[in-house]
Amino acid sequence: MWRRSPQPRSVLEDSLDYVHSPSLRGRFIVVGAFTIGLIAMIAIKLVFDYSERLADISYDRLLRSALLQIDENVGQSQGEISVDIPWSAFATLAQASDDRVFYKVESSDQGFITGYHDLDASPLLPVEQGTVQFFDRRYSGEIMRFAWLERYMTEPDASGTVRIVVAHTRLSREAMATSITQRAVHLIALVALVSIVLIVIGSQLVLRPLHRIEQQLEDRTPGDLTPLTLKTPRETYHLKMVINHFMERLQTNLAELENYTSNAAHQLRTPIASLKALAENARDIGKPEEQRAALEKIIGQCEALSDTVNFLLNQAVVSHRLQSQNMGLIDLVQPLQESCRAQALAAFRKGVMLSFEQEVESATIVGDTMAIEQMMQNLIENAVRYSLLEESSTPHEVVVRIVPRPNIYRVEVIDYGVGISDIDKERVFERFYRGRYDITGSGVGLSMVKDIADYHKASIQLQDTQPQGTTVIVDFPVYEMMGEQ
Amino acid sequence: MKARLLMLLCCLSFPIQAAETLWFGEASAPRQLYIHSTLDMSSFRPLLERFVGRHPDIRIGYVDVNTQELYYRTVSESDAPRASLVLSSAMDLQLKLVNDGYTQVYQSDETERLPSHAKWRDEVFAFSYEPVVMMVNKNAFAEREVPRDRQEMLSYIRQYDDSVTGKLGTYDIRQSGVGYLLASQDARQADATWGRILEAFGSHQVRTYCCSSDIIDDVASGKLLLGYNLLGSYAAQRAKQDPALEMVIPQDYTLMLMRTALIPKNAPNRDEAGAFLDFLLSDAGQALMRSEELLYPIHGQRQASDEVAFPLGPTRTIRTVDLDQQLLVGRDLIKQRRFIKSWELALELSSED
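The joint structure predicted for all components is written out below.
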């Protein structure tokens, strides 16, 4: 049974579909560009932090150098701490060319010594004598960078500590940080741009083998199902293999279909030819008794032909239903009962007792009643047919039974006929396979049963009946209410 | 800090004279600009007149103030300054005003054109150079060689020991901001020479003055034989007018100051001050300085081939005082106090003098 696309599609729909379906290349580019953008942003943030730190490190050196030069010139004369600010200290600070400079020297004993009286000389960080610390603090309307030092006086007659602060504005630091950041940002932006361009070009290259495969398939003649021999990169190897495999299956299916068609044609042609022969015979026969017998034969032949035609039609109907009809909640017992009731008389006429054994009141499953009836009809007909092959004095018997099992309802169709050989058991469900050609039947019966069972998510298996015969077992999954497990 | 500075002001400077305001331009002009400056009228009048000629809508009130007084006045008036433009040759005090936040930024095409060494933070701008020179009375040197550098000056003083006593003149560094700057730069350039100069000045009763022009007057009248550390523009002007005067550009090294302008922070007439500053820096203003031999234009040095009105010595001996943070060192409280003290000791002057 083949699945067909539900409706034929218009060109417009196809093109809309094309427009609306996500583009592999677009997705590739978007994800790539997004990733690069993200990385670039992180890099810029890092550069930003780094450049500020670098500028601080560089200019803190200036500040420290100036501070230490001042510190070196702190001395003592006549018991008084004094400082001679060296020119070089400020020559050092002048390297931060546009930054305002402030300083203050004070001691624990004398208080303010020189510099800017109102400069806040309290340390910001934990004090460690003799160690320079740096911090930012507001003074004179601007944020300043402070270098701070406090140390004990080392002169023999001196006591207490001297404290030196040197501060300058952050102009040069910011200028340096900005210039570093700017250059880095330019570079990062350039790299990101180049990468995105490469992704755009690369995506074109990467997807080219797919376009080649597409082109080759497009260019093929309708009947050409030979494997693709195109040389493509390793990444598309599997796609190529899958396409080739798919075409192989298609070819097999087509061959089967051909086989089936010729088989069906044969099955129809033979009875029609014999019907015609019988009819001509009957026409030419003079004796009324013989003519009557011939007509009986014609009727029998007609019935067989009608069976075959019915069968083919049923199959068409079922396959149509399975494709188009949605399944609903049904009671499995009903179609079973219905099938048995419908088949019982026909079976009885052929000398087969058909019985239905029911071990549950009702069995709710998700399914399609008509398909199940069709399946049961096939199974029962097969069972009857195989029963009749067995020569027996006692009346033949076929039992249909429904048994509840954990999570499943098991439906068994039991006959005591000739049975099916183990080799055939494996193949009877294949399409067009026919276990025995001496039995009438289209050979599509069991494959349809299998299709219907699959459609209901039911498993199907064949077992031998003891002492002889065949039991077909179909296990339907029990319908479970939501939330019940 | 302000209080402390004011205290210093009391100690170090003479009482502020009620400086008179000179007016330029139409009395009816709608805009007004006060300029506080240390520039002598003789050097500045043509520039002021040219400016008001070009800007008839601006009237300029010009107040001549001594460099040191100018500084303290700008600080004390910082909340509501009278002057919108402050011009001074005391670069260190000007820079300190900027550093301490008493000034505002000004930017124009003219200030952008200035080389970076001639401005700081776009708040103080140099508009002219000022070589530091010596001046002698030629009559006194009729038979003697005029000293060409500091060593010659020292040996001259030694040689004519008695005849030069009381006849040497220089700045009083306690009164004059620019005088202090020159002395501190001398001490920085050549500490040993400076010490010997101080010693020689002290032992020969050097006379101290508030201003260049007063020294030059006394040299011209013969009261002084030699003036040391004078501003070149005044000296050159006077030497040109008076054949008895000779300007000596020291050959060992020549200090080079810059006259600078700044706009105080809360200046009432910022736009007018900017206009005047732009005029000073403009080609017209600079050309006027050169052609009238008023000042050494800041842009002038570029045209060396020009007929330079003010000849300068060989440039390798020029020591330009940088307009940067180093100037603050000279104005360190302790350094200043100590420097003045040693100056007073050497010159045998008492602090009360």
